[in-house]
Automatic annotation (TrEMBL):
Transmembrane segments: none annotated. Coiled coil: none annotated. This is Polyketide-8 synthase acyl carrier protein 1. It comes from the Bacteria. It comes from Streptomyces malaysiensis. PROSITE patterns: CARRIER.
Length: 85
């Protein structure tokens, strides 16, 4: 895994953990936010808003259903932000 990808994943993990009110270590790459952390659609929107603000990008709301775990969030953000990690 590249250093840039690792750093981006860590940043996204921090955002998700803050919104879901859990420790960052509890957020795994493939763990479902809804199933493991009882995230609802409001929390998902909050995560989306914080990511958009941090990286100054727009993520279509239609992407929300796919953003169910850290890896999926990373994939969507990487695509929207043009990361070549």
């Amino acid at each position: 895994m590249s250093e840039a990808r690792e750093q981006h994943l860590d940043e996204l993990r921090e955002i998700v953990a803050e919104v879901l009110e859990v420790e960052p270590e509890e957020i795994t790459e493939t763990g479902s936010f809804a199933e493991e952390h009882e995230a609802d659609s409001l929390r998902a929107i909050e995560i989306l808003a914080r990511i958009e603000k941090k990286y100054k990008i727009d993520i279509p709301q239609s992407e929300l259903p796919q953003m169910e775990n850290l890896k999926a969030v990373y994939d969507v953000v990487a695509q929207q932000a043009g990361w070549q990690d």
